[in-house]
Amino acid sequence: MIVHRPPQLTSTDEQALIDQVDALLPQTQCGQCTYTGCRPYATAMVRGEADINQCPPGGHGTAADLAALLGRPVKPVDTTFGDPLAPALVAYIHEELCIGCARCLPACPVDAILGAARYTHTVIESDCTGCKLCIPPCPVDCIEMRPAQQPLPQSEATILERRNLARRRFIAHTLRIADDKAERQRKLQARRPGPRP
Ligand code: SF4
Ligand code: SF4
Ligand code: SF4
Fold first, then answer.
1. What residue owns the CA closest to ligand 3's atom 8?
2. Are residues 100 and 170 in the same domain?
3. What pTM was estimated for this model as a whole?
């Protein structure tokens, strides 16, 4: 679907513009924009396949910044994607209910959950972006979203720093999950019986 006819760009210029657009996004990786994360949404915007007002966590300010960068009309966030004025929340694990299944660990895009199989898990509040992606995999519903106990960053520099940290943690998480998958495949292959003599 083309929502905006973008200018023709070389592959290098396109990647550079995607980097700039991605830098404006909150790096929550929550998927409310209907894409699998911030960078896929950035890519779709640059290619003219998505509008600039689909990111509720970014709010109206981010939509305006995206419009300015991409030379498109300014629009408020489309609330069908979510509430841009929703209060910032972080995940909280009711540790007395946690069964240590570890299903929430791979779901957290920024590795903000501390735990291991058969041990109680807990959320590192300062790293939690409030994406809510850990909630569906929990089989005992012991994760709740609560208002953050620590004050959220207010200055532009601190917001940017937090966003960049979330992006780095997400990249590290994605690489670790890919490594774990490759390792599982290697172990499975090693267990398969070889050809009979
Ligand atoms: S933070 Fe915004 S751009 Fe990133 S995944 Fe969520 S809705 Fe999409
Ligand atoms: S702890 Fe849950 S809400 Fe917080 S960043 Fe991780 S997945 Fe998202
Ligand atoms: S998914 Fe729920 S029960 Fe399982 S480890 Fe995480 S918080 Fe505990």
1. 98
2. yes
3. 0.89
Q: Which ligand is nearest to the CA of 94?
A: 3
- 152 and 184, same domain (yes or no): yes
Q: Look up residue 51 and give its amino acid.
A: D
Query: pLDDT for 45-57, tens place per residue?
Result: 999 999 999 999 9
Give CA–CA dist 108/178, Å, rounded.
Answer: 14
194, pLDDT greater than 80: no
Q: Which atom of ligand 3 is nearest to the CA of 105?
A: 6
Ligand 2 atom closest to residue 127's alpha carbon, by position in its atom list: 5
* 70: pLDDT strictly greater than 70: yes
- Counting the structural domains of the chain, the total is 2
| Local structure of residue 148 (DSSP, 8 states) | -
For 47, 50, 110, 150, 158, the CA distances from 2, given in Å and listed in that order, are 8, 7, 31, 41, 35
Task: Let me know whether 53 and 98 are in one domain.
Answer: no
Interior CA angle at 137 toward 136 and 141, to 5°? Answer: 70
| Selection from 112, 145, 116, 107 nearest residue 126 by Cα | 112
